[in-house]
Design a protein that fits this description.
heterotrimer, A: 395 residues, mainly alpha, MetI-like fold, 2 domains, 18 helices, globular, C: 288 residues, 14 helices
Chain lengths: 395, 366, 288
Amino acid sequence: MNILTSIAEVSWFILLVAAGVAVLIGYLYSHFKFYARSWFFPAVLAVFPALALAASGALLGGYTFKLWLSFLAAEAAIAVFFRYAVKGRHTVPYLLLAPAFVGLALLLVYPFVFEVYLSFHDLKLTTIMMWKNTGTLPFVGIDQYIKVFTTSPLSETTFWQLLLRTLVWTFSNVFFHVLGGFILALMLNNSIRFKGFYRTLLVIPWAMPQVVAVLAMRGEFHATNGFVNIVITKLLNIFPFLAHLGVAPVQWLTDYPLLTCTLINIWLGIPFMMVVILGGLQSISSSYYDAADIDGASYFQKLRFITLPLVRPVMMPAVTLGTVWTFNNINVIYLVTGQAGGTEQADILVSALYKAAFTYNRYSYSAAFAIVVFAMLFFFSVFYLKSFDAAKDER
Amino acid sequence: MATVQFKKIVKRFGDNLVLNGVDVDIKDHEFVVIVGPSGCGKTTLLRMLAGLEEISDGEIFIDGLLVNELHPSKREIAMVFQDYALYPHMTVEENMNFALRLRKMDKAEISSRVTDAANILQLNKFLQRMPKQLSGGQRQRVAIGRAIVRKPKVFLFDEPLSNLDAKLREEMRVEIAKLYQRLNATILYVTHDQVEAMTLAGRIVIMNHGIVQQVGSPIEVYRKPCNLFVAGFIGSPTMNFLSGKLSVADGVAVFSNESITMPIPAFVLPQKEAVAGREVVLGIRPDDVLVERPGGEKCSCKIDGVLEVCELLGHRENLYLKVGAQRLLATVEAFFNRSPGSAVSLCFNYQNMHVFDKATEQRISE
Amino acid sequence: MRDNMKKELSAAAKRKRLNHLLIHAGIILFAAACVYPLLRIFSVSLRPGDKLVSMDLSIIPAGATFISYTKLLGDTMFLRWLWNSLLITLATSFIGVSLASTAAYAFSRFRFPGKKAGMILLLSSQMIPAGMLILPLFLMIMKLKLMNTYLGMIIAYSVSSLPFSIWILKGYYDTIPRSLEEAALVDGTSQVGAFWRIILPLSTPALSIAFLFNFTTAWNEYLVARVVLFSSKQYTWTLGLFELQGQYITQWGMFAAGSMLVTVPVLCVFLYSSKWLISGLTLGSVKG
């Protein structure tokens, strides 16, 4: 019986979405099609607010005069816009775009704006009930932003330590991703047997659900039962002299959490780079290599002068994307260190802000923190794109 | 079947003026070919008739009806696209009856039209196949079949043979000619290949840079090109052009450039006084350059030249000659049997000589 | 001269064989490193009840049993969690692909004011840190009283893969020649009719890729689910699996069994469609 109710619930939601899309399309279509008629303005000023009012009354319950006035004002503005600015052109593309972009506006743009709003107010555990009931919050100006830079999000580490750690994390990960992916792609690009089989195996870390993969790898770094320490112990048994060199089972998760996370993330991220680079390698026509062979180039010369330049246009988007994803990677850090009993030592910027919000309930603080991180990323990418474009133009 | 009129058609793509005041009149049951080099605007003109491009200025009439604002499907036209545009996920039969199904025609009527078209184009065996199982020529025929079943007022062909190899192109040209004879339809055909234009057209419209250069039957356009462009575009191999100056001496017009000097008889250039002293371009087709043959009274006197290269084409031979600094191409009977570098004598056939004013590029000979 | 060449050739052949051996060895090493953790999970899932925590490294442990599986399926709500995940993911994917298919068509075939801005918006939304929007979404869902419901989850998930799906679909639509739609226009459809009857049926490969991408993203998601769902009955499998790894007691056996049960189908689907997925990725990157 549970199954049926859950199906019903979900189907009802899909129908609701479909109905909402249909209403949206109908609304926009009527504006596009009838903007030129003489009865356009009277109709929209009378009909639409009334309909909107009825619908919202049914959904949210009750209405106020203020709400009705705001609907009227909005509708008047939209009608004027359609009549004088849009003039019914480009009907079809706008109608096609509307559902997706309204969805994005509601679930991407509005949350973003809301986050900015939050960052200027004070929402935390003590004020959240007040907000739920009245919808208002105390206004604190840039207080939260100041707190971001001066106080610690969790208990110990400061913003600057987190920033440094994040940069180290990002660069070391991306470096090994690209290096490992490149080496594997080079190896796979030859005409060897079982290539498909190998590729299937090598892609497994990427194909596995991240939750399973990370938790499994975390298990391998366990101090006593994990694969890594067991192997180290066995090695020490076979080669006792290694103990003198300082090789010993390591308390990975407690002593070196960031290193552990890095190793795990490298294992996770190499397949993606490998696949992309392999695709790029395979698109290089073999006639280039043939010509180089005739000219007498060695393997590394061919690599440096043919492979690398020709693979770069395929690699650049992947590396850029990979860098951004690594910078923003909450999953690995949180799954490895974020549970109760975990440590803060490995936190990067984004995982700290998630924990600040949901473990410590410092919502506004977390919002301000997030805006700061986003601003950093935004300016960096604008700068990066501008210099990339400039470099392209120079060439 | 219907008539088509283009009146003062202008088309702009942003700042780019593609068509600049085009007027074309197509009569009922006529096969008109619009021909010109890439970018001359011919495909744009066709697409405006189909309703696939907006008209910047001007009017288009089908059967006297102004169709500027009419949706493509309501203009009663059918179009054969350059890449055939067969719907890959439908069988041949479904491709052909798609438009009829959209108009909710009677099923019996639909199947009879499809069968008729399939018979004409020999597609009966392929009706249940998918487009990707067909060869290029077969796909072309399906595209034509799709147009036939519509029984439109005008057929539009957009460079239909461009994607076929040379041999197939010849075969399909004949098929299209036979189709026209059978259907007696109004056809507007766009191509950049002047051979197709010459062989298929009842009338040719030659365009360049968005302007109509000349309209006429194939023979008119071949025999009396009205300007340099048409002269150089129509006819294969291309016409020889000699730049020089006209002067009048002893009542006879004389053409001279650094390599050749020869008189021009009165029947070629009647108003010799009016054109004295002008810079002109003489046009003579390779067929009309006679090499090592007695001239006759309608030919010029002998001119000495050197043979540079000969190309044997089977039944004819191309001779690349040089007279002083002037290069000429002559086409003669095969097996000319002279080695490159040997001296030859040639003369020009005055009857088919053309004189163009160099500045205006217009024809000034009769 | 000829002897020299023969010697060169056989030496080259030997070198080639040695190279290939080295390559095989290297790849096998990496491949083993990739597969081994998965095999370990498999072996843990087969361990008998008393030996769950041990230092045994063998793949098939001594006394292998399926007891973890039976306990998982019988004593926990694992099946319920799978069902929750399935519903949410299917609904999300369906909505996401529908919205993306029409939007991508608009971007592919039309010119309109705001097109460039729209594309930039889509691209830059990829750069928003994932954690950034979880908070406002959480608060919105809380205010709408949709916490701990299917609807709340679907709302949260439905547009997360939208930009990427639009990108992929637009890239695919760009490869379909416009003359097909023009032929349909001349035949008598409207522009939207041409989209519905001609373009959409031809786009099934790209639509499948987009659907698959939406599906895997939502299926494997953890962070948003952890914030929105709080009762055991409503958990998705990611949350459920976590519950098995409690603070003091970790049910290793059942955890491993659950991991296997989820991973194997996902792997199969992924590997089956891997050629498509990869070509879909390169489609976007080559065109963009």
